[in-house]
Design a protein that fits this description.
The structure is a single chain. This protein is an all-alpha fold. Helix 7 packs antiparallel against helix 9, helix 10 runs parallel beside helix 12 and helix 16 packs antiparallel against helix 18. It is globular. The protein starts with a helix and ends in a 43-residue tail after the last helix. The protein contains 19 helices and no strands. The longest helix is centred in the middle third of the chain and has 36 residues.
Length: about 550
């Protein structure tokens, strides 16, 4: 009896009741989100991110009623939980599932939007906040706070982008807007960290150069670390071939090495977002093809499931955090003041994004010789619109800057946090719900149907793919088939040069070492020396897998 009492006492001391309650609430809400999301699958105005956000708000109100409007730890946003546990599987799966052809074809445009555009937005939002906030009585905010506001509100919500854009219906927009979002998040965090260490009393021309050098260093080293982690996993699995004993080991190794790349990047002060994203791309190109058939199916769905749960959890988390009563009490602001500050912040977001989307898109068009490859105004508008959503990265950076700040008043800090939350809620619900119908109205209704093209990978070069959602058709081209074919052949020779050189390098140097598409693992116990049931094909032959997806999309010679 005494032993049972001791065990019961130890159990009570090791298990926190509030943690159990919080997890129970979140798991219940996750189940509800999945069920409601399934019921709303065909609804054009709703998606699971908005559903989760609204459920989080409702759950927050219920918690407040149960606790009689007292603070609850369930409603407190935790930065470590977001950055260390929720964000990595989302970004990794995005890299793992991304269509690599489309992504790297638009890589220059993505870098222009993600780096140059973010810097432009950062400067305009910081300057606008500095000039306008004095009208609302913000007298305690410092120059560093205004610069931090620019970095915070420049961070787009790449998670919500996954929900509202389709990689199949709008491949160009998806690759550019989501790719920009990944680079944008990394750039915003780099700018934010630079602001934290900036000495505003000693700012010179060298400060901008140092900032540029720091960003280039972080971008290159983070990317190289992700590539190295992906190649290392491919080499280990190809060499040791865990599948001959246990498929569980190779699946576990892929998951752990992907997460390890993120943690190493954070440990070294690099960008974990960029690292795990490029690790996912490399793993899908090499590692995924080195594992057994059952492991390919398992990893494909396991990564997607973990990403889906993390995405839903984040929006639930943001919705419930908005109901944390303490920060609303601490702001001590009237509803009019809160709405006014939030409206001003969101207006700066609108202006800051428009200031770089349209100019950079038109500059990019000047470098494109063919009319059907230029970014039309309809596309530019959608790119501007889809990038207006702000999410958990914005909230996390806002908490980091204003939750424990000592240089400004507690009231101003709390008002900045609550205003940021209002911007996130408004942009996610309003713009997230309208984006899909807007794309259908602005782009897809103007599409020229083409039943002969089923996928971007079915043609020699993506340069030859006339994106269905931007073509309006040109009758004059119908009678000029011969010249059109000549132009197509010339475009193919030009656009496929880099691709052809990469394939030669990949086939000659990379695949023999790291495996990849067409790799047949050697199993000594097998009579043929290869995995049982694997087709006997040359190394460069394409495998026949029963399922499709972005992972299957490889470049073909």
């Amino acid at each position: 009896m005494a032993v049972l009492e001791t065990i019961h006492t130890l159990k009570d001391s090791f298990i926190d009741t509030s943690t159990v309650i919080a997890l129970t609430v979140f798991f219940t809400l996750l189940c509800l989100c999945i069920i409601i999301g399934h019921l709303l699958e065909e609804h054009r105005w709703a998606n699971e991110s908005i559903t989760a956000l609204l459920l989080g708000l409702i759950a927050g109100v219920v918690v407040l009623l149960v606790t009689q409007f007292e603070s609850s730890q369930i409603l407190v946003f935790n930065e470590d939980l977001f950055f260390l546990y929720l964000l990595p599987p989302i970004i990794f799966n995005a890299g793992f599932q991304v269509k690599k052809k489309q992504f790297f074809k638009n890589f220059t445009t993505i870098l222009l939007f993600g780096i140059v555009g973010t810097v432009i937005s950062f400067c305009l939002i910081s300057l606008g906040a500095f000039l306008l906030f004095s009208r609302f009585g913000f007298t305690t905010l410092t120059i560093q706070d205004y610069l931090a506001i620019g970095a915070i509100l420049s961070a787009t919500d790449s998670v919500c982008t996954l929900q509202v854009l389709s990689q199949d219906d709008t491949p160009f927009l998806y690759s550019v807007v989501f790719g920009e979002g990944v680079v944008n998040d990394a750039t915003s965090i780099v700018l934010f960290n630079a602001v934290q260490s900036l000495d505003v009393k000693d700012v010179s021309g060298l400060t901008a150069l140092n900032l540029l050098g720091t960003f280039l260093y972080l971008f290159s080293t983070s990317t190289l670390l992700g590539i190295a982690a992906g190649l290392l996993s491919a080499y280990i699995i190809k060499t040791l071939y865990f599948g001959r004993h246990s498929t569980d080991r190779e699946v576990a190794l892929m998951m752990l090495m992907a997460y390890l790349s993120y943690m190493l990047a954070e440990l070294l002060g690099l960008s974990g977002i960029l690292t795990v994203f490029f690790c996912g791309i490399v793993m899908s190109h090499y590692t995924w093809h080195n594992v057994t058939e059952s492991s390919r199916i398992t990893t494909k769905h396991a990564f997607a499931t973990m990403s889906f749960i993390a995405e839903t959890f984040i929006f639930l988390y943001v919705g419930m955090d908005a109901m944390d009563i303490d920060k609303w009490k601490a702001s001590n602001a009237s509803p009019g003041t809160s709405v006014g500050v939030s409206s001003m912040l969101f207006a700066l977001v609108l202006i800051g994004r428009a200031a770089f989307v349209f100019p950079i898109a038109n500059i990019s068009n000047c470098c494109r010789n063919r009319e059907n490859t230029k970014i039309e105004f309809r596309q530019q508008f959608i790119m501007w619109w889809a990038g207006l959503m702000r999410g958990a990265v914005t909230i996390a950076l806002s908490y980091n800057q204003f939750a424990d700040a000592t240089t400004s008043s507690t009231q101003d800090n709390a008002l900045m946090i609550t205003s940021t939350i209002i911007v996130v809620l408004f942009s996610t619900v309003v713009f997230g719900s309208i984006t899909k119908p807007l794309i259908e109205a602005v782009l897809l209704r103007h599409a020229k149907p083409n039943h002969n093209i089923s996928d971007a990978t079915d043609i020699p070069s993506l340069e030859d793919l006339r994106l269905l959602f931007i073509e309006t058709g040109d009758p004059s081209e119908e009678g000029n088939g011969q010249s059109s074919r000549k132009r197509t052949g010339l475009r193919f020779l030009t656009s496929s040069t880099v691709h052809h050189l990469w394939r030669k390098f990949d086939d000659k140097f990379m695949r023999p070492v790291f495996g990849g598409r067409g790799f047949v693992p050697f199993v000594p116990s097998s009579p043929s020396g290869a995995i049982d049931g694997a087709p006997n094909r040359p190394f460069d032959a394409a495998p026949s897998h029963p399922f499709d997806g972005a992972i299957e999309e490889e470049q073909t010679t």
